[in-house]
Design brief:
It is a single chain. This protein is α+β, with helices and mostly antiparallel strands. It has a domain of 89 residues. Helices cover 24% and strands 8% of the residues. Strands 1-2-3 form a three-stranded mixed beta sheet. Helix 2 links the parallel strand 1 and strand 2. The longest helix is centred in the middle third of the chain and has 13 residues. The radius of gyration is 18 Å and the shape is globular. The C terminus is likely disordered.
Length: 160
C-alpha cells in the first residue's frame, strides 16, 4: 500500500492513569472487585481475551493483596486499540495498521530518555528487606504457572 494516510497519530494521555480514564470515557472498562488471583482472574482472562472487542478489565480488591494493588487485563482490544496508538476510533484493523506504519515506522521519532529525581515512576520504590513480590496480585494464567505478570512485564519462575 503506497498511498499516504491523512490520519495523524496524537496520543491523548501521558501515563497509565490517564489512559485508564480515557478508556473509561469510551465505556470500555469493567471493574471487578474481590476476584482471586488463584482462580477467578485467570478464568476471566480466558473468556475476555478471546473476544475481538472484549472489555478492558480492572481487578481490584484482590484477596490477600494490599489495597490498591490491581490487575489490568485486555488493554489492546475494542475501540481503545485506536485510542492507545493515538488514532481516531473509526479505523478498522487494516486502516489502523497502515496508519501506525506510516506514523511510527516510516520515520521513527525517537524520544531521548531523561533521568529524573522525582516523578510517578519513583512513587513506589522498595529496597532490601522491604521487597516482597508475593504481595502483587499474580494470577494463575494457566494451570501450574504463576508468573508475576504476563507478556511485557517481569516474569517469576515457578521454581524460584
Amino acid at each position: 500500500m503506497n498511498q499516504h494516510s491523512n490520519v495523524k497519530a496524537a496520543i491523548g494521555y501521558d501515563d497509565l492513569r490517564e489512559w485508564l480514564a480515557a478508556a473509561e470515557a469510551l465505556g470500555e472498562v469493567r471493574t471487578i472487585k474481590g476476584a482471586s488471583w488463584q482462580e477467578d482472574i485467570g478464568l476471566a482472562a480466558e473468556a475476555v481475551l478471546r473476544a475481538e472487542d472484549g472489555p478492558c478489565v480492572v481487578f481490584d480488591d484482590v484477596p490477600g493483596c494490599p489495597k490498591g494493588f490491581r490487575v489490568l487485563l485486555n488493554m489492546f482490544a475494542g475501540t481503545r486499540r485506536c485510542m492507545t496508538l493515538g488514532f481516531p476510533d473509526h479505523l478498522n484493523k487494516w486502516e489502523l495498521s497502515d496508519a501506525y506504519r506510516e506514523a511510527y515506522l516510516v520515520e521513527p521519532k525517537l524520544i531521548p530518555h531523561e533521568i529524573v529525581d522525582d516523578g510517578p515512576v519513583l512513587e513506589n520504590v522498595l529496597t532490601g528487606d522491604a521487597i516482597d513480590v508475593t504481595k502483587f496480585p499474580s494470577p494463575i494464567w494457566h494451570e501450574g504457572r504463576r508468573p508475576l505478570h504476563r507478556h511485557r512485564h517481569l516474569q517469576h519462575h515457578p521454581r524460584s
